[in-house]
Specification:
Length: about 325
Amino acid sequence: MENLEKILADFEAGLKNLKSEREVFDFEKRYLGRKDGIITNLFSEIANLSIDEKRELGSKLNEIKKRIKVLLKQKKSSVSKIEIEIDEDAPEIKSGFGSFHPLTIIKKELAEVFSSMGFDIVEGFEVANDYYNFGALNFPEDHPARDMQDAYYISGSKDQLLRAHTSTMQVFTFENEIPPVRKIAMGKCFRRDETDATHEHTFWQIEGFAVDENITSGNLKFTLNEMFKKILEKEDVNVRFRPSYFPFVEPGYEVDSTCTFCGGKGCRICKNTGWIEWGGAGMIHPNVLEKQNIDSKKFRGFAFGFGIERMAMIKFGIKEIRNFHSGDLRFLGV
Ligand SMILES: [Zn+2]
């Protein structure tokens, strides 16, 4: 009997500390649960007692059980209920699977196709001096690209600038390695172009170059053809060179590929010409090689430079270059 009073006292003390419906529920289970409830177990135990003891303890136990039920009911109505507030006007949060950024997709494809042709992949530095950007690459002193209006110079410096192209990696390579070399460099470049739908001050470029004995424009054409096949995912792509001028190549070319979107018939992407313009290329100027003590009679090389955003714009039909670095998730389709 004393034991029963103690159980009730413990119950009442414990009940006071409960603060939520969940706690009350668990507490109720501990005392009245069908399996191992404290009170439930006592009912099973008195089944083994004599008839008199059973009667006495049984009625006391029933009283306690009733009392516990009443107290639980009171407690349930007093504990604070957790209310979930729903703001009907809040915008719907959509979650989805992540996806690769279009530039990442192109960079992966470029890395794959050039690795398969034996090119090393390098990155290089985003800040370089005038020599690596221009001087070593045969830019004349008065070339407009050296103008403060065209490049971002580090404040207080007339020599240090954010690289205007990844061609700086040619110089770093020729300083440190003896031909034959095959490299691609992919990285950010910076120019103070006026920003519009197809020009940004920050953009990604792929620079590729190979120097060896007997390198010709034919090797360049084959290499670029392999690249276009990979990016455009078509086997029948042709490459066309148009003569052009870049200080660090001779001869220099503008590089076009056949338009795989219309099969050469003319469409919006190729501006009805049947050809897509991609970027510049050429045979490395002998002055560039000689400056690094590479014998230009023995070694020849090709080089090319393409904007990676432009590749992604053509491949995925993206019209606005500023989307790439805007951080707008709608652009990524997430
Ligand atoms: Zn076309």
